[in-house]
Every structure is written in structure tokens, then in C-alpha cells.
């Protein structure tokens, strides 16, 4: 139950659901609390008491907002379909996660819910009270929905441009790297001789989501143990895989509490910053294909990747294993050299014969080498060697 709640709080359904429930609660209060609005000068212009007029306004609002909502969904589906066909389906969560789109969906859904509650209250034979300003408020909400719909068209039209999407993906990946680096704190060298004799196995199958080091540290401190996380965030986990190793034996209750911190599900771990690198590679490769033939987008992806690698080399991600908090938490991660090979070999395979993109890849490698201050052990000749091996 707790896992379902956590997933809901992180999903795109949270904001629309909260707004729709807020409109429902407001409508219930409005039809329940008896107020004589005629006594207030401010509300006199909003008072509608004729039942037929009220029915007309409410029916107009419900029908109109339904139409706008359906049209909005159609536009969103067209945008998503275009991005799937042209670039990568991995970009869909990035588009859907924009809060202002969720607010617009929540407000339009809430307006429909509000109007429906009023319509039920109007035809209810057991109630002799109907708020005199209810219909006018429904009309006002409908006008706000129209304004939001205009903004929605503008926003969606902007968000379908691949340059905007790449910029948002770059910013998101940088923020994820910064956040993870802050969680690491002081890094200690990995000690391979530490006694991790007890194992915790995965009880499900799926992708390991990004876990909170702060929450893991709290459990480790409470139980007085040291742990080694055997899998990287974003890895696919098979059932009965070794998820953790520990230096002490724990009870079943303690193991379940520890296992609950490591969420494994079917969704792509978009909160893992290495996934952002992967998305850039996917878009670059597909844009360079003969079907799309968009070398400009591929070049933009390479430029963004270059800057991301330069930035990543300055953060504590250079080792495959790290230990935190006096070796109480040991983690596996993708080091910079391995990630560089994974990204550039994949792009080299598809772009090595392109007269524009091949020099761009060479320049990117030199730029990363010169500006990062790290020896990454990868050049153009080694790219060819890796490409033959893979």
C-alpha cells in the first residue's frame, strides 16, 4: 500500500487529482452551506435563480469543457506520436511531467466535476436549497478554462520542438547529477575486503529506481550494519538477484523494511542521470538515420553530451565503486570512462561515415579530454577498436 502511495505521489496524476478533488469539495460546501447571497452587494451581479437558466449554464459548461478537454487530449496524442516516430519514446515522460500541463488538466477536470455536482444538487428533490452564485461561478471557471486552453496550445506548440526538448533534458540531467553528488557527501575509497556475508535477494523483477541515500543511511544507522548495494540504479533486476550484501544478519521484518527502500518496477528510471545520457544518444542516432536525416539534431545532442561529460568529470562519479559514511554504504556506479565508451561507440557506429557528424564526434572527444582535466582513455582510434568488438 505504501509503495502504491509513493508511486502515485510521483506520478503525473497527482496534480490533476488534487485539483479535481478540490473543485469537488468546493462544490459540496457551496451546495451544503446556506448563505443568502442577495444581502451582499458584491454577489448581486452573479445571482441566477431561475432553474431553467441554471440548467442551461451548467449544461453549456459541461459540454464546452468536455469538448476542449477532448481536443486537448487529441493534441497531446499527436505531439507524443510525432516524438515517438521521429526521435525516441523515452522522451514521453519528459513531456508529460511538465507541471503547467498537469495544472491545466486538473483545472478543466475540476470544472467538469464542479458543474456535475451542481447539476445533481439542482435536480435533487430532497434539497430545497441551491447556491444562487453556483451557475455564475461555473461560467467563470469555463472562461478561465478557455484562457488556459489558449496557453495550452502555445505551450504544446513550443514543446514539440526538438531543441526545446533537448534543452529541458539537459537541464534535468544536470539537476539530477547535482542532487546525487550532494547526497554522496564525502567519498571514501572502496574496500573490497570488507566482510559482507549476508545477502538480500530481490523478490520481484523490473528496473531499480533511484533510491534515497539519506533514507538508506538512517536504516543502516538504526541497525548498526554496513551494506553493499550490488546493483546500479537503472539496472534491470531479475527475481532472486542479489540486491544487497550486509555484514550482519537481520530479521525478516528488518529485511523487508530495508528492501522497501529499493523500488523495483516496470517504469524507466528517468530520475537516474545516466538515463539522460542514454536519451541523448538515442535521439542522436535516430536523427542521423536515413529515415529522419536530421544531422542538425544529432549535432545538438553531441554538443549537449559533451557539456554533460565535462560537468560529470568534476563530480564524484569517476570510480566504479564508492564507499560513503565511513564505509557503511558501498555503491556501484558507472564511471566516466565506461559511460563515455557506451555513448560514443554507439554514436560512432552510425555516424562514422557522415561528413558532418564524424568531425563533430572527434571534436567532442578532444573537448572532453581537454576541459575535464581527466584522462578518459578514449580517442578516435580506440572508438574504431571498440566498435569492432561490440
TrEMBL record:
Q: Is this entry keyworded Amino-acid biosynthesis?
A: no
Q: Which UniProt keywords apply?
A: Membrane, Transmembrane, Transmembrane helix
Annotated transmembrane regions: 12-37, 57-80, 101-123, 129-153
Give any Pfam family that matches.
Answer: DUF2254
Where is the secretion signal located?
none
- What's the name of the protein? DUF2254 domain-containing protein
Q: Organism source for this protein?
A: marine sediment metagenome
Amino acid at each position: 500500500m505504501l509503495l502504491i502511495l509513493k508511486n502515485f505521489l510521483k506520478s503525473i496524476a497527482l496534480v490533476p487529482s488534487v485539483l479535481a478533488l478540490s473543485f469537488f469539495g468546493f462544490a459540496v460546501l457551496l451546495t451544503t452551506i446556506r448563505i443568502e447571497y442577495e444581502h451582499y452587494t458584491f454577489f448581486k451581479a452573479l445571482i441566477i435563480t431561475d432553474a431553467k437558466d441554471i440548467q442551461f449554464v451548467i449544461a453549456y459548461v459541461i459540454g464546452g469543457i468536455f469538448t476542449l478537454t477532448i481536443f486537448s487530449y487529441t493534441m497531446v496524442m499527436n505531439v507524443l506520436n510525432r516524438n515517438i516516430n521521429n526521435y525516441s519514446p523515452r522522451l514521453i515522460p519528459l513531456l508529460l511531467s511538465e507541471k503547467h500541463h498537469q495544472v491545466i488538466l486538473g483545472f478543466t477536470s475540476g470544472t467538469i466535476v464542479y458543474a456535475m455536482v451542481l447539476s445533481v444538487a439542482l435536480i435533487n428533490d430532497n434539497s430545497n436549497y441551491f447556491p444562487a452564485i453556483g451557475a455564475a461561478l461555473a461560467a467563470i471557471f469555463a472562461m478561465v478554462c478557455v484562457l488556459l486552453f489558449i496557453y495550452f496550445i502555445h505551450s504544446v506548440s513550443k514543446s514539440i520542438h526538438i531543441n526545446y526538448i533537448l534543452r529541458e533534458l539537459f537541464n534535468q540531467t544536470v539537476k539530477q547529477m547535482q542532487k546525487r553528488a550532494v547526497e554522496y557527501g564525502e567519498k571514501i575509497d572502496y574496500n573490497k575486503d570488507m566482510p559482507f556475508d549476508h545477502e538480500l535477494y530481490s523478490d520481484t523483477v523490473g528496473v531499480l529506481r533511484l533510491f534515497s541515500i539519506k533514507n538508506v543511511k538512517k536504516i543502516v544507522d538504526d541497525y548498526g550494519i554496513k551494506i553493499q548495494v550490488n546493483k546500479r540504479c537503472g539496472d534491470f533486476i531479475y527475481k532472486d538477484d542479489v540486491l544487497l550484501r550486509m555484514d550482519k544478519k537481520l530479521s525478516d521484518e528488518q529485511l523487508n523494511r530495508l528492501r522497501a527502500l529499493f523500488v523495483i518496477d516496470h517504469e524507466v528510471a528517468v530520475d537516474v542521470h545516466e538515463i539522460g545520457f542514454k536519451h541523448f544518444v538515442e535521439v542522436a542516432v535516430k536523427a542521423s538515420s536515413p529515415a529522419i536525416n536530421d544531422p542538425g539534431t544529432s549535432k545538438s545532442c553531441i554538443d549537449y553530451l559533451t557539456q554533460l561529460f565535462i560537468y560529470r568529470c568534476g563530480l564524484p562519479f569517476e570510480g566504479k565503486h564508492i564507499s560513503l559514511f565511513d564505509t557503511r554504504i558501498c555503491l556501484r556506479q558507472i564511471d566516466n570512462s565506461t559511460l563515455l565508451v557506451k555513448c560514443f561507440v554507439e554514436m560512432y557506429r552510425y555516424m562514422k561515415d557522415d561528413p558532418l557528424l564524424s568531425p563533430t564526434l572527434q571534436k567532442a572527444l578532444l573537448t572532453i579530454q581537454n576541459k575535464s582535466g581527466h584522462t578518459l582513455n578514449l580517442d578516435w582510434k580506440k572508438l574504431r577498436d571498440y566498435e569492432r568488438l561490440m
